[in-house]
Amino acid sequence: MRVLAGSARGVPLKTVPDFETRPILDRIKKSLFSILESSTLILDASVADLYAGTGTQGIEALSRGAEKCVFVEMRPEAVALLKENLAKTRLQDRAVVQCCPVGHFLAGLVPHAGAEIKFDLILYDPPFSFSREASSRAAAEEEISRAGRLLYPGHARLVLRCEKKVEPPAPAGLELVRRWVDGPHAFAFYKLLG
Fold first, then answer.
1. What tens digit of pLDDT does each residue of 90-121 get?
2. The domain spanning residue 127 has which CATH number?
């Protein structure tokens, strides 16, 4: 794993060596960030990296010119490596790291989601599968819906990494505007309705 472009290009990134974290492959990350850059979703953007792991996607966004990134990850061992990666890339001054479950982070922000806390880009990469039973899918869709309320209206996007084999989630208040597939990997791009 490494930073692919921008100010920290080529810097190797640490990942947690277990099966609970599924780091994005460099080839897939390159394609995703090509889409994001061509859609003008990175430069000077306010980004949230939810289920950040060791921060490979949020760090890529910062390296490519995002103004700031909030990283949310609940596992202390992943957060420790995330902070090391930020220091190694010299991007820590534009980063905020929250060590808590994504649901707790959203619960603290969404009721107060006035003009002060909004994002241009939310990278949403949960470690779970959407092919599970309907009750888990419904809870995941509700969490995505809450995250989506933190998007700026219009051009801002929530980008969900999920499995190719499943129907993209349908979170309330969000509209699926693009689905991109590469092998078994899929990304769903959502915007706020209205």
1. 999 999 999 999 999 998 875 555 546 899 99
2. 3.40.50.150
pLDDT tens per residue across span 38-65: 898 899 999 999 999 999 999 999 999 9
Q: Looking at the domain assignment, is residue 39 inside a domain?
A: yes
The tens digit of pLDDT for each residue in 61-86 reads 999 999 999 999 999 999 999 999 99
Count of domains forming the chain:
1
What would the DSSP string read from start to end of 63-125? HTT-SEEEEEE--HHHHHHHHHHHHHHT-GGGEEEEES-HHHHHHHHGGG-STTS-BSEEEE-
Beta carbons of 29 and 75 less than 8 angstroms apart:
no
Structure tokens at 139: 């809870």
Q: How far apart are CA 116 and CA 118, in angstroms?
A: 6
Q: Which of 33, 21, 68, 30 is nearest to 49 (CA)?
A: 68
Taking the whole predicted model, whether its pTM rises above 0.85 is answered as yes
Is 56 in contact with 111 (CB distance < 8 Å)? Answer: no
